[in-house]
Amino acid sequence: MKPKTVGDITIARMVDKESTEHRYQNWFPDVPQEVFDSHRDWMDPYFFDYDAGTIIFSYHGFVLKSERHTVVVDTCIGNDKEREARPLYHLRNDTRYMDELAAAGVHPEEVDYVMCTHLHGDHIGWNTKFENGVWKPTFPNAKYLFSRKEIEYWSSIPEDGNHRQAYRDSVSPIVEAGQSLTVETDHGIDDSLWLEPSEGHTIGHYSVRAKSNDAEAVLCGDVMHHPIQCVMPDLCTVFCMDQEETRKTRKEFFERHADTDVMVFPGHFAAPTAGYVVGHPDGYRWKPDF
Ligand SMILES: [Zn+2]
């Protein structure tokens, strides 16, 4: 994705991993391949690998720069995290995320806010880095905004699970360093930047809205995972915690943004990643911004 300009704000993407390894059946078990085949004219080659029969998926975050703020939204999978149960998240040292932050002209010290749309392991990884045997905040001068409901939920699940391991190495060190801000999902920074509740995929999921002059962007995390969900707004992944709530959130999101100039930055759409929701007699469609 080329960096985008929204009014006076620039938004660049940092990729941890772009992957064609995902069998769509593991994400959307009830969708037959014919559905993807019938949308080949716009999905090929960006969102579906028609040779392999797999969805193309991206793990990325964004850095948003305005005159007042430098904000990282979602910190992906990270390096050095022990994730044996999820080989795709066991990236060790092969992630491009920090190099791409540098390519966007941002040093970790300059970041004032880190916003994690939710606390799944693929959205919190680069919160911390492993140094001299301990996990330290990657962004030493930032406040990290965690949704209160997410903190309450993920800190109370059983200690031995995969999610709890992620919480332990990627959220707890931030809290212990005094850099966390536990916030409600409608928390505002100022009149150009605020959070909005978008719950369902997880219990306290939020989106980030940025406005400058008359231009507007929304970074919507896992409100949707793949453009096929624009065609089928009811379609949830097996990883959505509350499917009913996820559907409601997604439908409201589409109704609000369809055929508007609001640029949408989903948490997992493959390059070019940013784009627009457009209305269609049958559901909606995704219009990538090339
Ligand atoms: Zn995710």
**Strand segment count:** 17
Can you identify the CATH class? Alpha Beta
Number of helices: 9
Report the sheet-strand fraction: 25-35%
Overall, the morphology is globular
Task: Determine the mean pLDDT.
Answer: 94
> Helicity range of the residues?
10-25%
Order of helices and strands: EEHHHEEEHEEEEHHHEEEEEHHEEE
> Domains counted in the coordinates: how many?
1
Model regions low in confidence, pLDDT < 50 over at least 5 residues: none
CATH architecture: 4-Layer Sandwich
Pairing-aware structural class of the strands and helices? alpha+beta
Q: Largest sheet at a glance? A: 8 strands, mixed
Bound molecules: zinc ion
Distance between the termini: 8 Å
CATH domain topology: Metallo-beta-lactamase, Chain A
What is the CATH superfamily classification?
Ribonuclease Z/Hydroxyacylglutathione hydrolase-like
What would you report as the Rg, rounded to the nearest angstrom? 18 Å
